Amino acid sequence: MATPEVAIDGNRNPAKDECKMLLAGDIGGTKTQLAVFSQEKGPREALAEKQYASSAYPNLESIVQAFTAEFQFPVERAVFGVAGPVVGGQASITNLPWLIRETRLRELLGIENVTLLNDLQSIAYAVPYLSPQDLHTLNHAEPVTHGPIAVIAPGTGLGEAYLTWDGSRYQAFASEGGHADFGPTDALELGLLRYMLQRFDHVSYEKVCSGLGIANLYGYLKDSGYAPEPPWLAAQLVEADDPTPVVVNAALRHLEQPCELAVETLRLFVSILGAEAGNLALKLMSTGGIYLGGGIPPRILPWLEHTYFMQAFLNKGRFSTVLIRFPVHVILHRNAALYGATCYGLDAG
Question: Are residues 54 and 203 in the same domain?
């Protein structure tokens, strides 16, 4: 049932390890990744780590049982970043029929200290601990010490979160800002809004600025006659379970195999992402920086480095001179949500 990706420190005897240990998890609709960390070795070196196919299990408890049976570390605290809103210590997972409760996990693990975090909140908690190697900078500017920090993460959906300084450390907060109303900024985007309103009762930024949104952008441009669809791309899309990587790959390979429709789809996506990142930066006055997380930004770095993103980010009238002073980074860390949950657990534990 589980994937065979396992890492463990074979030289360590868990029963004799007296340092504080943390069970951390990144819980998503497709995969669940669990790992054990210690205060001694820190958040970048797992004592044990394993990935599971989420849909192969009836609930998170069954995965935790399998993991703890295989790796018998004496954990004292557990933190799980989950792909869904967390309210009152419980969460439902997007694309899975799971209801996760802190109380059940406490009983299962036999410990009192169990915390559920929204996955974007987990990514946000990673930000203060990221190294220069974990980041790719799009706008070089000096952050204001202890200034607010914004996180925007296009993946399957669009997540948004933020951090504020409490006097001793940064605290991260989740939001559902990705579901706010989409606001067009030019004639092409006005046409997109009209197109989307014919198909949806509500058009959010997530519907046009995410993995799901890329398919919507492509459909709009194709149906409006912006450019013809090449037969080779049409054939790939028919065979694909998910059109998003097909369109993105076609745009990234445009020099080898030109495809105006895919190129314009990605340009439009990057512009909308830049505009919404600028909106979030203004609402929070995120002088500490804006961080782009999620699975899409690292894959499209050449497009984010193009002027499309920063032009849209700065297109705020007289406040463009304010935004130009905010640093903008892409998070390159391969599993920022797990890393953030770990940093939170070790720091708070």
Answer: no
Q: CB-based contacts of 14: which residues, under 8 Å, 6+ apart? A: 47, 71, 72, 73, 74
Q: For residue 298, what is the DSSP state?
A: G
Among 282, 325, 333, 306, CA closest to 136 = 333
Q: How does DSSP assign 209-233, residue by residue?
A: SSHHHHHHHHHHHHHTTSSPPPHHH
Closest CA to 127 of 345, 346, 332: 332
Instruction: Give the strands of the sheet with 77-82, arranged side by side.
Output: 2-8, 48-53, 31-38, 21-27, 77-82, 114-118
Global pTM? 0.90
Do 315 and 185 meet the contact criterion of CB atoms below 8 Å apart? yes
Domain that holds residue 188: 131-332
Q: What is the pLDDT of residue 310?
A: 98
Predicted pLDDT at 94: 76
Return the pLDDT at 156: 87
Is residue 98 assigned to a domain?
Answer: yes
Measure CA 220 to chain center. Answer: 25
The last residue of one of the domains, among 117, 147, 168, is: 117
Same domain, 208 and 310: yes
Q: How many domains does the chain have?
A: 2
Which CATH number do you get for residue 136? 3.40.367.20
Element (H, E) at 7: strand 2-8
Instruction: Divide the 349 residues of the chain into consecutive groups of 10 and give the mean pLDDT of each group.
Output: 40 47 93 95 96 95 97 95 92 88 96 95 97 97 98 94 96 94 98 98 97 96 96 96 95 92 98 98 98 96 96 97 98 96 85
Is 212 found in the same domain as 136?
Answer: yes
